[in-house]
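Long-time lurker, finally posting.

We've been working with N-acylglucosamine-6-phosphate 2-epimerase (Thermophilibacter provencensis) and I want a structural starting point before designing mutants. I don't trust myself to interpret raw outputs, so I'm hoping someone here can both generate the structure tokens and explain anything notable. Sequence follows.
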Amino acid sequence: MPISPLVQSLKGKLIVSVQAYPGEPLRHPETMAQMSRACELGGAAAIRCQGLSDIAAIKGRVEIPVIGLWKEGHEGVYITPTLRHAMACVNAGADVVALDATDRPRPDGRTFEETVEAIRAQSDVLIMADCMTIEDIRRAVACGCDLVSTTLSHNKAAIDTTLEDGPDVPLLKQATSEFPDYPIICEGHVHTPADAKTAIDAGAWAVVVGTGITHPTSLTSWFKAAIE
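Top reply, 14 upvotes:
Generated this for you. Predicted structure of N-acylglucosamine-6-phosphate 2-epimerase:
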């Protein structure tokens, strides 16, 4: 599969996930846009963000690519769960749309494969597949997704992790071994620079860091726990 120039530009680079959970003090599109710009100045090669307002605000503030998604719900498929959600992210300005790549039921009844096909028919946006297992990764590669990530491999939200929870290196190594020339992204529980380096050394095309950079509540709790 030809690799797009945008995806080529991410090779060996850092992608920062800029998200705040509902009810948190930073949960505002302008705040997310400011944080994204700060990450860009620090060297981020792309921003991953959630929600239509955040996608639009961040796209207007940064010059690097924006990976957009829309979370709805908390169980099952909730990361860009339907074609409608995906196309809304496209219309909000996302350069890449991320969606759940598992084979779990989706609210609109489409399969993952059918969703990817429908997105391709309606847009030239790039597609990032958020995977839980090696089977998901194989499915995403077979569909020709532009990027494939280990986002869901821990099967729990980033906010529920601790500093000791590291990236899923075994899955990453298995995926990069099976698909050595494919853009396999390491995402999930990458909390430290050492974690990020480990992921790159394991063959990751790029590394996504969220909580470890952009979630001050978690960062503060880690320092507090270490002191006390």
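Before you design anything, note these points.
The mean pLDDT is 94.
The chain has one domain: 5-227.
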